Amino acid sequence: MKAARLRSWMVKYGNLGVIMVVMYFSLRYVRLKSRIVLICLSIVSLFTMQYLCLYSRRPAQLFLKAAVKPIHSAASISSATTVEELAKKYDEGCRSAEKLTVGPDTWSFVIGIAEKLDHVEDELDVYKNTHLVLKLLARDLGGLGLTVKRMTFPINLPIVAVQSFPGLGHPSETHFYTIIKSKLVTMGKVGAEYGGPIFRDYDGDGKQEWVFDDYRWYDYFSQGPTRYLVYKQDQQGKLRLWKRIPNPKHEHLPDNIHIFCY
To answer: Is the pTM of this model over 0.90?
Structure first.
């Protein structure tokens, strides 16, 4: 086959054309060599295809096709229906906004696509009534994509979790926020794959501690977690790691956050 024809494939079909040319030369070479070479070249072609499909596009935020643009105007966020519309699921388990009323105030946590960047990245905007009180890029929260969910934990505080994830791979971090005395409090973060939390009073002080396991896929793979992590909540609402408890049976705690999805 003429080289011009092969070049036309690459021009016309792009990445698919490159794969077609690779396969053409693979088959041509195999006609002269053994079947073992065919197997090797087929494997190379397969990995080439996977690479092109995964890395020739922008990061995995392209999966968030229904993610909304961040809201920057007070007039927009004051609409009674805005946040409810944004809070619709755009994928199984994923939410782009949460709205909660605490005392006289309405708080809105909105995930949108950050503007004026040369790549796709989410951002978190938090509004108290109509006023923007917090703006963070996903990179500030350990990832490129974000999703948000209000928690229903058995404690007397409103809790909102924001989970971050990279362009590819497993989720990164879970960040917790609460409202105390009409102020937004950043409670802290845990690993996004940690099991939990469950709530137990370990020291008999009448206050329940937050308990997670320490599971991370890249550390344990199919093995279970080796420790439980116990966090105390201080007077400012911050989560502080108090103790690590051995987990010799490698038992997972239930996923009581469950907001990561792709």
So the answer is: no
